[in-house]
C-alpha cells in the first residue's frame, strides 16, 4: 500500500519522516511550491519542523494529483481547512483510503473529520489517526502509540499494518465517533488546564479539570454512539493526559498565556479554539451539559474573564459524581 502525506506542517512532516525511515517512499505534499523546493534542497522543513532531516525516501511535492496517486493519503491540514481542501478536488479521492490526522470539530458544520470526508469524498474509505503524540517526538523516532480507526475492519487492519513502525505502534478501532471526539475535545480541556495553571489556580484544579473534562467528553461521545472503552484509550484519556500536562502542547501553552495575562495571541495552530466554539454551540442545541467547554468558549469570545469562568464552575450546584 503506497502512502502520501497531504499537508507539510509539523505533524504531516513528522509522519512522513517516520514512515519513510525504513526506505519506503513517501510523498509529502505542501501547497507552497517554494516550501517544497526548499525541503527538496535542504532536506529539512525549516519552517514547521526545524532540525529534523528528511530521509531520502521522502519526496516533497507541490503537485497534489501526483501525491494523491498513492493508495493511502494521510490528511494533515488543520481541521478548519479540511472541508475546503477536500471539496476542491473531489476526483482525486475516489477509492482512496483517507486517514484524517487532524483533531477538531468543523465550525461551519459541527462535523468531525470523518463526517467531512463522508460528505466530500463518498467513494473513499475514511479513517482516523489519533492519540498522544507530539510531532517532534515522532520525528525524532521516540516510541509513540496511536489509534488507527476505520469503520471498515479489513481496511483498518491493512492500514494498521502499513503505518506501524518499530517505534510507532498503532492500535486499531472501528469506533470512529469515539476516536475523533476524544482527539477533538482534549484540546479544549487542555486550554482550560493551561488557563488554570496560568491563573495560579494550582495543580489540584488542573486534575479536577482533566477529570471533569473527561466526564464531559464521555457525555458527548456516548451521545454520538461512541464506546466508553475507546475514550479510556490512547485517542481519549491518553491524549488528554499528554496535552493537559505539557507545555509542548500548543493548546495548553495558549491557555497558559491566557491565564497569565487575561488575553493571548494565537502563535500556532490551536485547534481547541474553534472546537470549543463549535462544541459549545452544539451542546446548547442538543441540551448536553458541557460546562467546561462552554466556559472556555465564553472566555474565548470575551464574554467572561478567566476569573469569572473559574467562579462559574466552582459555584455550580453540588451533585453526585
Ligand atoms: N503538531 C503536533 O504535534 C500534532 C498535530 N496534530 C494535528 O495535526 C493537524 C495539523 O497540525 P500541524 O501539522 O501541527 O499544524 P502546523 O501549524 O504545523 O501546519 C499546518 C499545515 O497545514 C497547511 N495548511 C493550512 N491550511 C491549508 C489548506 N487550506 N490547504 C493545504 N494546506 C493547508 C499549512 O500550510 P502553510 O504553511 O502553507 O500555511 C501547514 O503546512 C492539527 O489538526 C493538529 O491537531 C496531531 C497530533 C500531533
Ligand atoms: O495533539 C497533540 C498531541 O497529541 C498536539 O497537541 P497541540 O495541538 O496542543 O500541540
From TrEMBL:
Query: Organism, per UniProt?
Result: Psychromarinibacter halotolerans
Designated name of the protein: Glycerol-3-phosphate dehydrogenase [NAD(P)+]
Where does the Glycerol-3-phosphate dehydrogenase NAD-dependent C-terminal domain start and stop, copy by copy? 175-310
Keywords in alphabetical order: Cytoplasm, Lipid biosynthesis, Lipid metabolism, NAD, NADP, Nucleotide-binding, Oxidoreductase, Phospholipid biosynthesis, Phospholipid metabolism
Q: Which residues bind NADPH?
A: 11, 31, 103, 135, 250, 271
Q: Which reaction does it catalyse?
A: sn-glycerol 3-phosphate + NAD(+) = dihydroxyacetone phosphate + NADH + H(+); sn-glycerol 3-phosphate + NADP(+) = dihydroxyacetone phosphate + NADPH + H(+)
**Taxonomic path:** Bacteria, Pseudomonadati, Pseudomonadota, Alphaproteobacteria, Rhodobacterales
* Location of the Glycerol-3-phosphate dehydrogenase NAD-dependent N-terminal domain: 3-155
Top-level taxon: Bacteria
Mind listing the GO molecular function terms for this protein? glycerol-3-phosphate dehydrogenase [NAD(P)+] activity
Q: Which family does it belong to?
A: Belongs to the NAD-dependent glycerol-3-phosphate dehydrogenase family.
* Pathway involvement of the protein, from the record: Membrane lipid metabolism; glycerophospholipid metabolism
Sum up the protein's function in the record's words. Catalyzes the reduction of the glycolytic intermediate dihydroxyacetone phosphate (DHAP) to sn-glycerol 3-phosphate (G3P), the key precursor for phospholipid synthesis.
Please state where this protein is localized: Cytoplasm
- Active site per the UniProt annotation: 186 (proton acceptor)
